[in-house]
Amino acid sequence: MNREQMIESVRSQMPEKRWRHTEGVMATAVTLAERYGEDPAKAELAAILHDVAKYWPTSRMEQIIVEQHMPKELLLYDKELWHAPVGAWAAEHDYGVTDAEVLDAIRYHTSGRRQMTKLDKIVCLADYMEPGREFPGVDRIRELSEQSLDKALLAGFDSTIGFLLEKGRRIFPLTVEARNGLIEEIN
Length: 187
Ligand code: DGI
Ligand code: FE
Ligand code: FE
Ligand code: FE
Prior knowledge:
Layout: H1 3-11, H2 16-36, H3 40-49, H4 58-67, H5 83-93, H6 100-107, H7 118-129, H8 138-144, H9 149-166, H10 173-186
Keywords: Hydrolase, Iron, Metal-binding, Nucleotide-binding
EC number: 3.6.1.41
Domain HD: 18-132
């Protein structure tokens, strides 16, 4: 499958608005890769596929999490988290992606994790700050992204954690670990 075929296939699995978000993540991830010395082709590939499973039925995501022996803990947390590991599985099985770094960047794009790779950080940050995103604090994240990948991504996780706290929702442990890890790296 070539790049154009992959794009058409991913696009066909989501509403037009989500596809425009994906295009924003692609462009932003390439820019960040060039700025911070990562491979732009890997950043773009992860970005194309990062939300491929976002609109899959919940029951299908749940089935894949169980059958593929993904951490069952996921099922105890917000369903919003599920499309990331399921998307990594789809990238490998439906699109033949074999690059473990690309698969990890997709797998951890929502939750983050401790010791995030540069590619993980780029995809996660691009997801936060692509031009179509609008939430309080996004412009500050865009500003920080010109100076520090870690500081910008930390501001992103702070925003998500604040949002979850405000809503009284639980926080997936990997997100707490990702934030702790970034603070350690900054200091
Ligand atoms: O798929 P996108 O909408 O582009 O963005 P995403 O994959 O970063 O998903 C973000 C959503 O996940 C956001 O609405 C917050 C929600 N979420 C729920 N629980 C958690 C969580 N995000 C993180 N990082 N950690 C959680 O525990
Ligand atoms: Fe996502
Ligand atoms: Fe995200
Ligand atoms: Fe996304």
